[in-house]
């Protein structure tokens, strides 16, 4: 039996997920779509032989939909997730889970009341083979206990609508989640450093930004988030342990020797870098939903990322280090 | 509508293809299996909810089977392929297409009589992203016209049943095909060099062997086929052109610094190296069959590889370079 | 005519410089030595056919000495340098120039009174071919204006006498100087971050430490100084510019494939890493002295490094960012 | 006491050696020069405060000359070397030792009659740190016994006067020597393969050429000698052993990320690649001569290289593999 999925939001990432669920993922099909722009929803519906619903709520309640994927505008995420819980349907929500910590807490409360995990957050990097291998290396003890992390998140250029906060909430958020997951602990404090601005960034945009995080055990993390690297989309991560280090490799690419140079290409678009991770994420989610047991990032993970992002933004505004204060983690999320 | 596939041969590679068609490939399902060992066929049939047929011929003729995948013992390939053509069914035959050039010709004749391409040979490397990118680089002119090829095919250890000929027909055959495909021309001559034997190879086994090929345009190719590298499964290829070179990258792997060394892992098993290529090959074949137009390696490619392998084996026995003599290529295969 | 050099301090680094001046450098010879430990001075004198002097002052004043190299205990540097200026002799002083900013200023005053540069500080990294190439890349504009620096200074293990301050004054000092030199500007502020301690470091030692510097133009610098990396001596540096980045390569080393791994060695001792830089530094200094025009790091550079190190140490003690306040740079040092 | 060296031949490489002996090497000075072109000899003499001699023989006999370096036109080498032996003076002769095997034998006879090694041949690669490390790895047994060698010798473009034979005698000769030295055995057979010609090479020039050598123990060697690689000067070497491989690294160079590419520079001129090897070679030779015991490549090595080059050239002309037949090695050269 194929899992029947309804997709809310049929813009860029939503369309890509519909294609993926149809052409790449086995055991699932997209049966329903909706979008604030009815025209593009209808177009997607037609192309993929799905139903087009006027609202997300209609889609969520439809008997043609077993599970929901949310890829709509960020501020709408929380409302749709709550509706899914109310309808008792599994939901994969693109990050962020919500735009406020209060909404994250509301979602956790609803989920706990329901009595079972229904919510997964779209932190796809956890499904990247290299990050997974990195976690295995850390856990194997080969590099000793982690002490430091050096990470870089570089886009080639930023989109027109990019804002200072989005450096944290859209880009940095992936780093916030993946490092929590790799280190298996929460953050204690957060700070943002800014300095010389890249002339190629929009006027007034603080770019690059350095995000400093420290975990409860004292692991020190420095993350360059650079929206205007100029040269490509480049994700780097090195964990420094007590006896060695482990580092993400560059994505492999042909080696060319010509004109006095040894060269390999770097991705220029984010969409090229995590193709396999997105595929793995969705396939695992479909498999998990069919087995009725989620294994991916939870509402708690969405909440922790939200709180951390808030702290970073406050630090940038205040110029000082600020504490990252999470509620006590409910046993439900252990 | 899902393509209903019958699989002949449910040993190692056959089983892996059944899993792949079921769990990874979209738009297809395995509906029938058969094996010379009835027991393992029945087991696979049960696990995958398929029918178990007593013979390959029965499977091929079954109305439950739209297309056939052959992964049985090499000497049986040609017979099954001919039956598929007779039944007018698409067939993907694992390499080699046949064990003799005469059988390859028989298959081409049958296919031409049928009037349409039905046969594809399982040279999966053509679906590897790096080889594909390499072909694009060559065609772009960035390195000028190809002059030389340096290739290595290294297994960690050989299987017990490995023979001197199998170095050419089982391992070298992949190099023979992929280089024809990259260079887009046929071979003119072939030679095998042997020298010092690896003590870790079975007694009497000539390992490593150096395969020398020259194309009709004079491109010189040297291929190390090494069944006992001792350290891993390692495929290397460098094309030297008139103004530059292009080289396959090592598969990317985490970079670890510890104990005075910078290290990354190398695959040890062949099955790890071309996972994506096999996935792409089968997905593309399924898509092509549904559109009733094959785009993968043809019976002609199987024939050319067979003739080249024969020439190499004769060279090893005679100690001299021997010509590679192909029939004129029928327009049917252009 | 060979330049006759007197060496003050014949311990580890001093002995190495004597060997270098004798066996590697052309146009110079060591004619005089001295050490607080008369015995080891006499031993070096005997081996290298030099005179052994009871005190540094005697050596400096000797007519057998054209120029002086100081490699004695840090607190003695300033005094010897002042004596050299008084004697009108060129002096290469191992870092630090002095242990206090006040002594640095005294040296600059003396040198300015003398009316000509006599003092060079032993920041040998400026003579490393890769750092030099890096500076050329920056100046070429190929990566745009520098915005960020990521640097690492990792020792395998620390010496017994290592202290928290020495992380800055002995190891970090090289980073402080080389980055000033690469970026061609002064620092505006300094901060040290500490967190989880490496269990393999001595009790009470804050290791690793993160040094944060910001230049007057706002370039943000993060330096990991790690005295107990466990795996090797490893110096890394990446400059992130407005359109690209430039990074030091790993020192080249043989590539070995064995046992499922691709490996190259990393240096374990600092003495292996900058051999050529030390050779180049001394050869250039000898050549410069003969031409009576110094081109290497000046007393001002020693002073700027000292002030910056002081600021970092104060920051570590206070837990906040502190300003780096230099006197106005005398035209004499432009 | 400085070793007084006379240099025969003050063209490109000769001038470079004079500079090196003067500015880089310790313990030696150039006291005499000569050249077939008197004018350039006088110019060099003037610049380096040396005597200019009308003939090589005059220089060799001069009491101002302790040892001789020969960097003149290839056909003159043997005569000058014989004169040096007659004069009982140490001589470093740039490769080749002689242009005929017969002259090599004559030199060995003269040297044996003299009763002591006086002759060293300028195979500088033996002084390259990476080749030396490679030899250590082989001898350590880390990769098992060597079975295969893959080597490349690539120039960016060839000089106007380049001929087919020079591919072997000028460029290939370095590979011939270094591989004998690495493997510590002699060659048994030799073959040259030619194929498609590079359009950017001069008309009629067979470029690239593949040199195949097999050692007495059966190690198989393939060497690409490519005078028109188009992209740079690139020397590669991989030794494949029974349990692993060892490979020369690319010379280290800055890593630049810009414009969608990760790039490092490749040398374009041969003179950039072996600077340190030449320095080490000459310093070691000067030290050895002073101790009156040579440790570098001997007349026997020059003879073996000459015989091998002859065999390769005969193979290219005949199109078949030819034996490499050396005289029995005199104990004198063990």
TrEMBL record, chains A, B, C, D:
GO terms for molecular function: inositol 2-dehydrogenase (NAD+) activity; nucleotide binding. It comes from the Bacteria. Residues 135-324 form the Gfo/Idh/MocA-like oxidoreductase C-terminal domain. It catalyses: 1D-chiro-inositol + NAD(+) = scyllo-inosine + NADH + H(+); myo-inositol + NAD(+) = scyllo-inosose + NADH + H(+). It is an enzyme of class 1 (oxidoreductase). GO terms for biological process: inositol catabolic process. It holds the Pfam family GFO_IDH_MocA_C. Residues 3-123 form the Gfo/Idh/MocA-like oxidoreductase N-terminal domain. Keywords: NAD, Oxidoreductase. The keyword ATP-binding does not apply. InterPro entries: Gfo-Idh-MocA_inositol_DH, Gfo/Idh/MocA-like_OxRdtase_C, Gfo/Idh/MocA-like_OxRdtase_N, MI/DCI_dehydrogenase, NAD(P)-bd_dom_sf. The keyword NAD applies. SUPFAM superfamilies: Glyceraldehyde-3-phosphate dehydrogenase-like, C-terminal domain, NAD(P)-binding Rossmann-fold domains. Pathway: Polyol metabolism; myo-inositol degradation into acetyl-CoA; acetyl-CoA from myo-inositol: step 1/7. Its EC number is 1.1.1.18, 1.1.1.369. Homotetramer. Involved in the oxidation of myo-inositol (MI) and D-chiro-inositol (DCI) to 2-keto-myo-inositol (2KMI or 2-inosose) and 1-keto-D-chiro-inositol (1KDCI), respectively. Belongs to the Gfo/Idh/MocA family. HAMAP family: IolG. This is Inositol 2-dehydrogenase/D-chiro-inositol 3-dehydrogenase. It comes from Sinanaerobacter chloroacetimidivorans. The lineage of its organism: Bacteria, Bacillati, Bacillota, Clostridia, Peptostreptococcales.
């Amino acid at each position: 039996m194929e899992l029947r999925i309804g997709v809310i939001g049929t813009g860029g990432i939503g369309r890509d997920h519909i294609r993926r669920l149809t052409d790449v993922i086995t055991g699932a099909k997209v049966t329903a779509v909706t979008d604030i722009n009815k025209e593009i929803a209808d177009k997607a519906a037609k192309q993929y032989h799905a139903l087009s619903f006027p609202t997300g709520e209609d889609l969520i309640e439809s008997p043609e939909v077993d599970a929901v994927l949310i890829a709509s505008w960020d501020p709408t995420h929380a409302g749709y997730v709550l509706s899914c819980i109310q309808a008792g349907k599994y939901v994969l929500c693109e990050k962020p889970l919500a735009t406020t910590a209060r909404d994250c807490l509301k979602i956790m409360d609803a989920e706990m009341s329901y009595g079972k995990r229904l919510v997964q957050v779209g932190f796809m990097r956890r499904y990247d083979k290299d990050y997974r291998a990195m976690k295995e290396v850390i856990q194997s003890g080969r590099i000793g206990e982690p002490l430091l992390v050096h990470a870089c998140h570089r886009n080639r250029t930023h989109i027109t609508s990019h804002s200072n906060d989005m450096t944290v909430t859209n880009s940095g958020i992936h780093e916030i989640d993946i490092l929590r997951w790799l280190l298996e602990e929460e953050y204690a404090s957060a700070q943002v450093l800014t300095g010389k601005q890249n002339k190629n960034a929009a006027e007034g945009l603080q770019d690059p930004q350095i995000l400093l995080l420290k975990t409860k055990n004292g692991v020190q993390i420095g993350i360059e988030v650079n929206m205007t690297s100029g040269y490509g989309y480049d994700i780097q991560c090195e964990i420094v342990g007590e006896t060695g280090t482990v580092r993400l490799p560059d994505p492999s690419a042909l080696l060319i020797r010509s004109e006095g140079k040894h060269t390999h290409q770097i991705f220029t678009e984010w969409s090229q870098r995590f193709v396999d991770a997105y595929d793995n994420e969705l396939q695992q989610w479909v498999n998990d939903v069919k087995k009725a047991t989620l294994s991916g990032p939870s509402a708690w993970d969405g909440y922790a990322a939200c709180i951390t992002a808030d702290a970073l933004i406050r630090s940038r505004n205040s110029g000082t280090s600020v504490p990252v204060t999470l509620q006590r983690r409910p046993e439900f999320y252990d």
